[in-house]
Amino acid sequence: MPQLTELVDGVYRDLADEAKEVFSTLQVEDFVRGGIADLNRVAPQDTEEVIEFVTDPENGVINKNSYDVAIELPYRVEWFRLSDGWSEVLSEPVEGQSGASGYTFRRTATGGTITFPAWWIAQVDPTVYGIRLHGYAVRPLPYTTDPDPINSPSVPLSSEEEYSVRAYAKSEGFDLLAHDRSLFAQWQGQSNNTDVSPTQMMQMAANAKQEWDRQRGLIRVVRRYW
């Protein structure tokens, strides 16, 4: 799991700006965040989440039937026994309605909200059973580390996902150079870049875009639904 500063340094190398004289750290971080956001659209994380019940402090009965979760698209909701892991799938939602022991799910800006019938959830013993969701969640966008790179956050990416995010960032950087003559002149004046013409820069930007499109196709996740 790379740190944000490691990703940023890698993008600087990809953009042939290792001296960090052309692109600002904030610009490159935006490229990285854009890559993660696009990765979330084509390949969201397949994950699971266990609901943390809210109970009455006096009698231990579950007194809340609606919970916010990070998963934004569940494909399996089950209740399970804590002692041995036995599980049973809860009834699937049909046109927004829940069955006797079912649930409804609503997507939100930060994930989703799952709601169970109040009478049913109150009968669940939280010391014996739990409820687990399987589904898709987005990767969080890392906050900026500038000007404090020491406390750089970790970014939840595999090696392949890191490569894809860097491919996106490289495409964005080269596209900006191809369309901003002032920025390109500054980049061109650096060591080892003086032999690159505007026409070659356009081709480099096109090649970087094709590489990202190729990576986008390779990492695309076919989502499972209810």
Question: Would you write up a description of this structure?
Answer:
The longest helix is centred in the C-terminal third of the chain and has 22 residues, at 198-219. Helix 1 (4-14) packs across helix 4, helix 2 (25-42) packs across helix 4 and helix 4 runs antiparallel to helix 6 (198-219). Helices cover 37% and strands 18% of the residues. The chain has 226 residues and is of the alpha+beta class. It has 2 domains: 4-44 and 141-219, no CATH class; 45-137, no CATH class. The protein has 6 helices and 7 strands; from the N terminus they run H-H-E-E-E-E-E-E-H-E-H-H-H. It starts with a helix and ends in a 7-residue tail after the last helix. The mean pLDDT is 88.
What is the count of DSSP helices, taking H or I runs of 4+ residues? 6
Structural class: alpha+beta
Number of extended strands: 7
Question: How many structural domains can be distinguished in the coordinates?
Answer: 2
Give the oligomeric state of the chains in this entry, treating copies of one chain as homo and distinct chains as hetero: single chain
Low-confidence stretches: none
- Strand proportion: 15-25%
Fraction of helical residues: 25-40%
Query: How many angstroms does the end-to-end distance come to?
Result: 31 Å
- The radius of gyration is 24 Å
Q: Shape from CA axes? A: elongated
Mean pLDDT: 88
Largest sheet: 4 strands, antiparallel
| SSE order | HHEEEEEEHEHHH
Strand order of the largest sheet: 1-7-3-4
